[in-house]
């Protein structure tokens, strides 16, 4: 009979191995969240069939129709001043037109969160430029957001769109105030 000896791994080394395995497993689980949305089969182009509000629209593509929420910006809420102006601008620009999309992800309502382009112009940026949307302080963290913040400051300085009102309230604050 041959005696087998197991090597005893010190607790510190065992914990380190468990930590590394846990980090790797977490990274693998997180990968689908970070992966490009196109890998999930989301459409990259289509025709705008409807405007929901100042930052949401419906796009028809080969696989059907999908609601799209413009990434990185926030237009006034439906009961907020200038909401109808933002929606009207989006309707004039996009309704019936073919757009290109860079999908980021899906939101909790199943809408595609995307940067939308009309020809080579970012619709997201255009709404900010014309003064009908804010750069979202919580969700716009990419490099392009710095540029959009400068564009927003210029629109504010000119008094364009919603910036005509000195006390313009961003939608994320408006919603918080309305809940009270």
Describe the structure in your own words.
By secondary structure, the protein is of the alpha+beta class. It has a single domain (38-179), classed as OB fold (Dihydrolipoamide Acetyltransferase, E2P) (Beta Barrel). The chain is 38% helix and 24% strand. It contains five helices and eight strands. It has helices spanning 11-34, 83-94, 123-129, 143-158, 171-179; strands at 45-53, 56-61, 64-70, 73-74, 98-106, 112-118, 121-122, 134-135. The strands form two sheets. The protein has a five-stranded mixed beta barrel with strand order 1-2-3-6-5. Strands 4-8 form a two-stranded antiparallel ribbon. 27% of the residues are buried. Residues 27-39 have low confidence and may be disordered.
């Amino acid at each position: 009979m041959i005696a087998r000896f197991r090597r005893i791994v010190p607790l510190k080394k065992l914990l380190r191995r468990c930590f590394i395995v846990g980090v790797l497993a977490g990274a693998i689980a997180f990968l689908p969240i970070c992966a490009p949305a196109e890998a999930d089969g989301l459409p990259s182009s289509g025709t705008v069939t409807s405007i929901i509000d100042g930052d949401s629209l419906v796009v028809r593509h080969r696989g059907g129709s999908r609601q799209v929420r413009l990434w990185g910006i926030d237009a006034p809420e439906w009961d907020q001043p200038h909401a109808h102006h933002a929606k009207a601008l989006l309707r004039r620009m996009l309704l019936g037109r073919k757009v290109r999309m860079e999908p980021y992800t899906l939101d909790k309502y199943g809408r595609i969160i995307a940067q939308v382009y009309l020809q080579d112009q970012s619709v997201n940026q255009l709404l900010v430029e014309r003064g009908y949307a804010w750069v979202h302080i919580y969700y716009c963290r990419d490099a392009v957001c710095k540029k959009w913040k400068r564009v927003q400051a210029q629109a504010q300085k000119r008094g364009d769109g919603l910036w005509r009102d000195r006390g313009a309230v961003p939608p994320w604050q408006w919603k918080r105030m309305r809940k009270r």
